[in-house]
Design goal:
The complex is a heterodimer.
Chain A lengths: L2 E2 L3 E6 L3 H12 L4 E4 L7 H4 L8 H6 L12 E4 L7 E2 L15 H4 L14 H9 L17 H15 L7 E2 L2 E2 L23 H12 L5 E2 L9 E2 L5 E2 L21 H4 L1 H4 L5 E5 L1 E8 L6 E8 L4 E11 L3 H10 L17 E4 L2 E8 L18 E3 L18 E5 L20 H11 L3 E2 L5 E3 L8 E9 L5 E6 L4 H21 L3 E5 L16 E3 L23 E3 L14 H19 L10
Parallel strand pairs in A: 1-14, 2-3, 2-14, 3-11, 4-22, 14-25
Antiparallel strand pairs in A: 4-5, 6-7, 8-17, 9-10, 12-13, 13-14, 15-24, 16-19, 16-20, 16-23, 17-18, 18-20, 21-22
Chain B lengths: L5 H10 L10 E3 L29 H11 L14 H10 L29 H17 L17 H13 L9 H17 L11 H6 L38
Helix pairs in contact in B: 3-6, 5-6
The chains are: A alpha+beta, B mainly alpha.
Amino acid sequence: MVRRLPHKDVAIVGLGWTGSILANELTDAGLEVVAIERGPWRAAATDFPPNYAQDELRYRIRHELFLQPAQTTFTFRNRMSQTALPIRNWGAFMPPNGVGGGGVHWNAETWRFLPTDFVLRSHLTQRYGARFLPADMTIQDWGVTYAELEPHYDRFEYLCGTSGQAGNLRGRILEGGNPFEGPRSRPYPNPPQSQPFSHTLFAQAARRLGYRPFPQPSGNLSRAYRNPLGVRQGPCSYCGFCEWFGCGNYSKASPQTTLLPVLVRKPNFVARDQCEVTHINLDPDGSRATGVTFVDSSGQEWVQPADLVLLCAYTIFNVQLLMLSKVGQPYDPVANRGVIGRNFTHQTISDVVSFFDPKKFIFNPFIASGAIGMCIDEFNGDNFDHGPYGFVGGGYMGQVQTNGRPMETTPVPPGTPKWGAKWKQAVKENYLSATKPGTGVHGSMYSYRDVYLDLDPTYEDRFGRPLVRITMDFHENELKQNRFLTDKFAQIFQAMGARQMDKQYRRAPYDITDYQTTHLCGGAIMGVDPKTSAVNPYLQSWDVPNLFVIGASAFPQNAGYNPTGTVAALAYWSADAILTRYLKSPGPLAHG
Amino acid sequence: MSGIRRRDVLTGATLALVGAAAARASIVKGELPWRPDTASPPPRVEPGPWQFFMPEELPTIEALADRIIPPDPDTPGGKEAGCVVFLDRQLAGPYGSAEGLYERGPFIQGVEQQGPQSSNTPAQTYRAALQALDQYCRDGRGSGMPRGKRFAELAPQEQDQVLHGLEGGSIHLTGIDAKQFFDTLRKDIQDGFFADPIYGGNRDMCAWRMIGFPGARYDYRDWVSRHNERYPLPPVSIAGRADWTPHNR
């Protein structure tokens, strides 16, 4: 029997970065907030203490901190003509699970998108003409500008204690920072992290080639920090166990290390863990959310009534809840109508693994942090003239190697066998003197008419609900972009003195077993036109005004950066609109 | 919402037990839900009888481990390093039974980019593949191969010839995707070589000493800016080092 809980002002689905940010903002305004999280509570002291957190088999290979596909997964196909099959074990991306969400296991690269990224279609059309864009590319302007988001980026960086070097301080270009970034109102709260040897050499080589390298903005702290909420973090120890792992040092920015200690002490906040929201409940005419239904770990179903419902789950789960609750018109790629599932994107990642003379170079690759590294931004977004090259988009590139963990990072030169005496000898000889940036070329993926999400007709989750079906492939624009960027990237390693290189271009078809990043975007995108967007510029559903959908699900296309900085800035931006406008007059904040 | 199948929900609840400190839904309010003695340290492999491999399989898997990682004068091979012990415990545990993976049908073979779609668990695959491999060898197929010998009885060069055939897809084993099995086997043996020694392989941290990986140290603040200098300290496991424990001296 379904049990009914007392009414709350706000029900939040998912307690990761966005759920924590929204909960903290709205409880500050005095609202009664409940956050409902599918996974377990997680804390450094009990879940990833430094006496066993550095376990590559358990966390990296066996994925302990992640959602288990048996709980729920997705189906995948490259093209509409194929039958989608279930992802039985994670590969191309790693959906998070539990309190803290992706903030627990991320590398903490804390980027801002470029000002032109937010007005992408109008900017590119103006510069190159509409015919320069592929006919089936469905990129859009966001409906929010960099200038509007700047104060919210700033708040997130000061919440996290981001360590970096400003490149553009209120319009003044500063030496050593990213000269292409949008103007920032304040410097980063902490100086950049120290850079290990190979990362430093990369920057020197890039500078010799005429580029302007800068340290990657890092949520691994360069020094001890007390954030504006009074929560303290310790300095990063460069342990080399960051991405896929929780931080046992309290030195990686996460909801646990920045927000939750304050949030859970508030009398008007409550969190429920191990509870999966299965439905957004609507009134009979579907124009207003009345709350959510969730199932706890004993199988008990509950109804949580609320005035305001905020979807703060991982990208695809936000989209899935909209689809299963029949909010908004599902996207139909054939008719090119509908919005839910539209403009789904991932990333275009490639790498160059380089081998140096072991007698001259000792890189100690195990000394690293998640967001360590020196980068260049000359080939990101529209920072260069695309006219001669016939593609749009780009990405940052850098020596951003996060680890020397031996199951993942024992590279051998191209042509070496994968096993046997020669393999063993090559592993031994190259371990300390090879570079393997991982996500070295961090390219954008723009949106296309035939890359989208819908519900699978065959496969179900453990509740008997249809899985979300992913239809995705790389398009020629992204492959051209990747060839161009990967070659530029390799030139820098050549200049560093590499004696052999393995250029690992991104190739089609898109492969669901090959890890890129966990940066899935879109499916419930923001915009100014309800015919082509699911949410308005404040992330409010066009169809159900007391429902907000927060996260990278709102990105109309993905830029050439890691998304978390922008996801968090959008969360603060949306919270601000709820607090200053929506609560005074609950109703649509924009009209299409 | 109706239509939720209660039995399946309970399966989900059981799943949530794996690796989670808090196994049941709970309400967090007023303070962080921290409780003493609730951490979940990794299970440590203890010496003892084989848990997965059967006596007739051992010579085969040990020979395979030593061809994938052959011994050399400086570093043990896969067998001596404990990779078979590692694999034995992994196959007897959650990895072997594909715990946590999506196992609902229908099982349809798709394109490579859609990932493996087998309904067999790794434990089932290993059981069948080791037997099929020995049968293949006894049959003496392949140019210049002897008849009537099991894999472990072949000369090292002959063993390598078989492995190349599996890797390249030219050898077919009855009922098994031989190429995919070899890929899994290779990764599993190499994982055992490089994993923390608490899991049974990487004996005495031999693989970490071979490459210069310091293991579970966790603080390199004093070395991050010492460029191009070899890190001076020996490796350490999650379980420490033998010379930290007086009774082992």
